[in-house]
Amino acid sequence: MKEYIATFHTHISALLTSRKLTALSVRAQMMPVPRKLSSSCGTCVRYWAKEPHLAAMDADVEAVYETGADGEYTRLLQND
User: Fold this and answer.
1) Which of 4, 8, 46, 78 has the fewest CB atoms within 10 Å, i.e. is most exposed?
2) What is the pLDDT of residue 64?
3) With contact defined as beta carbons under 8 Å apart, do 6 and 64 qualify?
């Protein structure tokens, strides 16, 4: 299981994505964006899955990161 963090331009997009991931039986939680990552709304979705589930992201997603064992983030998706 890998850990991912998705950031969003709006709070509602974070909420919609969290609900969609949960409906897919993915463990997900909303939380403040880590300081190393930037977000327009300050809310992100942290989730644990075998794959990043990029298709489940709301259209207003800012970026999706995979969290490494060393605490570093690898960007998988950037949506300006």
Assistant:
1) 78
2) 97
3) yes
